Amino acid sequence: MNKGAKILSEFGADWIIGLGGGSCMDAAKAMWVLYERPDLTIEDITPFEKLNLRKKARLINIPTTSGTGTDVTWAVVITDAERKVKLELASREVVADISILDQS
After folding, report:
1. Domain extent at residue 91
2. What tens-digit pLDDT sequence spans the chain (104 residues)?
3. What is the spatial distance between Cα 84 and Cα 90, in angstroms, rounded to a whole number?
4. Can you tell me the distance from the alpha carbon of 47 to that of 98, in angstroms, rounded to the nearest whole number?
5. Is residue 61 in some structural domain?
6. Residue 94 belongs to a domain with what CATH number?
7. Which of 16, 7, 2, 95 is nearest to 58 (CA)?
8. Strand runs labelled E in the chain
9. What does pTM read for this prediction?
């Protein structure tokens, strides 16, 4: 997540696109938070922490699979491979500004 946030910062992104399955979109949400708030850690994504997002960028989620619903929820599930745990994070602020669903 930190590497992705660093790349977003170097690029100066104003839109972030979460494209793929639930993990890809959750990763986009987490990187967005760390890009906007480099003073926070991933564990700070909680309903109790005011994130103050949308100062630098906005988020578009485009699901390419079905089932997780992460494109329209405020939940974020991130796997910490180093500690071998899944982090269950949440903030109402991480709901995407735009979610595109192909219903064809």
Report:
1. 2-99
2. 899 999 999 999 999 999 999 999 999 999 999 999 999 999 999 999 999 999 999 999 999 988 788 899 999 999 988 899 999 999 999 999 999 875 55
3. 20
4. 21
5. yes
6. 3.40.50.1970
7. 16
8. 15-20, 58-63, 75-80, 85-90, 98-99
9. 0.92
